Every structure is written in structure tokens, then in C-alpha cells.
Amino acid sequence: MPYSIAIDGPAGAGKSTIAKAVARELGYVYIDTGAMYRTVGYYCICNGIPINDETSVVEHTKDIDISIAYDDSGVQQVFLNGENVSSKIRTQEVGEAASKVSQYQPVRDKLVSLQQKLASKASVVMDGRDIGSKVLPDADTKIYLTASVEERARRRARELEQRGESCDIREVEREIAERDHRDMNRANSPLVQVPDAVLVDSSDLTIDETIDAILDIAMKR
Ligand code: DC
Q1: Structure letter (DSSP) for residue 139
Q2: Of all protein residues, whose CA lies closest to atom 4 belonging to ligand 1?
């Protein structure tokens, strides 16, 4: 039976950096589920599909092909109808679109089934919003990884600057708070800390300390 570690938490908590490192350490496959919702959002933006219109989004995205593969360094790549869109989906605009389309149940059903298929084949560290609650309710280890809004905004701003995108920290903070609110209050699979998840607050932890904390928790299970 493959093992699974579910890491859920709000935007900018460092889930992907941490999950990637934990997977490498344990020899598991890392699965970034946010990238899949971002791909749906990206498709809508590119094709002029009105993001707030559920019927239209569902109708136009039900047959798109989303798949993942790993490059030579083991980094997840996501493909949209065969095209590698991994770098194109990392913008703030696509993140917003992902948060909106992820509210629609048919979009979730399509991606959750892909995620569950992947986790049935190999031991995984999977990060997202509903992994412990819906995708892998029987995960061996469940983590709820968070940090204060201020700290998450600082990290996101640093990341954007490194990519050469200018930003206003207050604006980033406002967008994060808004995204948290939408992700936590939507009707379908909202972000929650499930009762069997262990809370890890990384506000005052370095990346290495956070990785060690999660490895520690996983080892004790
Ligand atoms: O983790 P991220 O920023 O790449 O995710 C983008 C959006 O996708 C997030 O705001 C909500 C949605 N999402 C989701 O609903 N469920 C998941 N398992 C992962 C992401």
C-alpha cells in the first residue's frame, strides 16, 4: 500500500517548497494540486471564458486534458492539452482565477479523481486545500501548514520580486486575505483544518525547521 502525506493550508504558507523537500527526503512523489486548478484558470483566461460564470467554465473545461509528469530533476510539470504550462501558471492573475474556478464542484470532481489516481500508484506528499478532508481522507499523515497573513504576504512579495514582477506589499496582503476568505468559505470542499491534522505554524520557522517538524510528525505516525 502506498503511503500518503496530506499538506493543506492557505495561500503562501510555503506548502509547495516544504512538501517538495519532504517528498525528496522520503523518496515519495510530490503532487502540487494547486497547479491543476491554476491550469483550469489559465485555460479560461487564454480562451476568454468568463471566470464567474460556472456553467460556461464547466462546459468549456470538462474535456480539457490535464496531466502531470516529472522532469529530470524530479520537478512536477503540468500539461494542458499536451502543452507544458508549468511556468505560465505561476502568476498572481492565474492564482486568482484558480481560486474562483475551484469553487465549482464539476471542476473539483475532475481534478480530485486525477489526484486520487496518482496517489493510488505511488507514495505521495500532496499539497492543496482539501487533501486531508476530501482527496485522501485516509492519509497516513495530515498536516495543516499555515503562517500569519503578514508573513505570507512578505514571502509572496519576495517571490514575485525574484521573478522580476513588481508589487505593493499591502496589495499582496489584501489579495491573500481575500483568497483565504474565498477558499475557506466556499460551499464545496472549503479549506479546513480537519480534526486529525497536525497544525504547523511556520511564521517563525525557517524552511529547514518546518521540513524537520513535518518529517518528525510523519515518522511518529
Ligand atoms: O496553492 P495554490 O495557490 O497554487 O492554489 C491556487 C488555488 O487553487 C487556491 O486559491 C484554491 C485552489 N485549490 C483548491 O481549491 N484545492 C486544492 N487542493 C488546491 C488548490
Answers
A1: -
A2: 34
